[in-house]
Design goal:
Layout: H1 3-7, H2 12-15, E1 22-23, E2 26-28, H3 34-43, H4 48-64, H5 78-87, E3 88-89, E4 94-100, E5 106-111, E6 117-125, E7 128-132, E8 136-137, E9 155-156, H6 159-173, E10 191-194, H7 204-215, E11 227-231, H8 238-244, E12 248-252, H9 258-264, H10 273-287, E13 292-298, H11 306-315, E14 321-327, H12 341-353, H13 386-393
Parallel strand pairs: 2-3, 7-10, 10-11, 11-12, 12-13, 13-14
Antiparallel strand pairs: 1-2, 4-5, 5-6, 6-7, 8-9
The structure holds S-adenosyl-L-homocysteine and iron/sulfur cluster.
């Protein structure tokens, strides 16, 4: 990565379609927060007096009932429905393909405006289901073990495209009330993780607004404790995440010395381990959450020694934490190998004995390249150069 990329985080102004972008003169209602929705309705001619009620009604149709057509919003007067249809659209990404793994994991390839593609993964588990969503097409960062990192950033996703991933997965799983979603039983999508393509904290405003929609208790109703945002360690945005989103945080830690982390997660050159840990110490208090997840990818001979495990425990002392060990998921041309199982278990033992939960993440959907860090749209041609990746990885 060039120094310039590191110093100039991509902002939504540069890469996202303008918030007021309109398709054929119409504005998309999906992804607007409640205040934004209300303002849009007023702008379209709704009286100030009725705006709050209309906002509530439209919101419910969109996010509780999952309706995509103004004509179906039957508690609104016909004229008002016509007005909405004239001014607005209800637009979601489109499913290009769906693959289902032998373990039940589903991977969706979605097409968004501009013809770009992103991936979303649904992971069913005993008693819960996790949807892994993307925040960008590609990524500006170049973590050397990550497939997405080999793809250039194409653009940030809009809030509509982020919320849209949840809605589309619900469509496919049949989880809207009228599709016969079971009441009072475990929800099919019970958790959302921002662990797909992209660095969510380099698309802060859109991710925040999308999560506000997802967390609202009259629509998709996922509580903030069921949403986990994973970051490579964009320090200046971490306190904001606690204050403005309040979800759980996972950090791609992956190494116990700056020399190794510089190679694996090059953004470490900007915010090193000590700086990152300082910021993380405040997160649980600021977000009123229990603990931070430290993600740690197990790379054979690179970061998986007993000494690493002991250093890790020392480093995070005092931070309420869980350490999630991720066996490396290979992808074509990857410059690393997965640590042996016995090594991963020995590493996990040391952490566990030090008093931390240290679950080993079972790779899911490997047969369809849906596992962590394997996402990358196959049709997307923009690549970082091999030289750039190799230089960052020090290989
Ligand atoms: N950009 C964010 C979120 C997306 S990646 C971040 O970096 O945190 C989600 C998780 O998968 C991160 O912890 C990432 O480091 C990890 N990951 C990436 N590539 C991987 C691979 N090939 N095998 C295992 N984990 C990987
Ligand atoms: Fe981007 Fe996360 Fe992959 Fe790093 S691990 S390249 S931050 S998606």
């Amino acid at each position: 990565m060039t120094a310039q990329t590191l110093n100039a985080p991509i902002t939504q102004d540069v890469l996202t379609l303008p918030r007021k972008a309109v398709e054929g003169g119409k504005r998309n209602l999906i992804g607007l927060t409640r205040p934004q929705l209300r303002a849009a309705l007023i702008e379209a001619g709704t009286s100030e007096r009725q705006a709050k009620m209309r906002e509530g009604q439209v919101w419910q149709w969109l996010y509780h009932w999952g309706k995509r057509d103004f004509a179906a919003m039957t508690n609104l007067a016909k004229d008002y429905r016509a007005l909405l249809a004239e001014k607005f659209t209800i637009e979601l990404p489109e499913i290009v393909s769906k693959q289902v793994s032998t373990d039940g994991t589903r991977k969706y390839l979605l097409r968004i405006n501009g013809g770009h593609e992103v991936e979303t993964v649904y992971i069913p588990e005993e008693g819960r289901g996790t949807l892994c969503i993307s925040s960008q097409v590609g990524c500006t960062l170049t973590c050397s073990f990550c497939h997405t990192g080999t793809q250039k950033l194409v653009r940030n996703l809009t809030a509509a495209e982020i919320v849209g991933q949840v809605m589309i997965a619900r469509d496919d799983l049949g989880e809207w009330p009228e599709q016969g979603a079971p009441k009072n039983e475990t929800r099919l999508i019970s958790n959302v993780v921002l662990m797909g393509m992209g660095e969510p904290l380099y698309n802060f405003e859109n991710v925040r607004d999308a999560m506000k929609v997802v967390m609202d208790n009259e629509g998709l109703t996922l509580s903030r404790r069921r949403i986990t945002l994973s970051t490579s360690g964009i320090v200046p945005e971490i306190a904001r995440t606690a204050e403005e989103i309040g979800c759980l945080l996972a950090v791609s830690f992956h190494a116990t010395t700056d020399a190794v982390r510089d190679r694996l997660v090059p953004v470490n050159k900007k915010w090193n381990i000590a700086t990152l840990l300082d910021t993380l110490r405040d997160y649980p208090r600021l977000s009123n959450s229990e603990r931070i997840t430290f993600e740690y990818v197990m790379l054979k001979g690179v970061n998986d020694s007993d000494e690493d495990a002991r250093r890790l425990v020392q480093l995070i002392k005092g931070i309420p934490a869980k350490i999630n060990l991720i066996p490396f998921n290979e992808w074509p041309g990857a410059p690393y190998e997965r640590s042996d199982w016995a090594r991963i278990e020995a590493f996990s033992d040391i952490i566990f004995k030090a008093g931390y939960a240290s679950p080993i993440r079972t790779p899911r959907g490997e047969d369809i390249m849906a596992a962590c860090g394997q996402l990358k749209s196959a049709t997307e041609r923009a690549r970082k150069s091999r030289a750039q990746i190799a230089a960052e990885a020090g290989v």
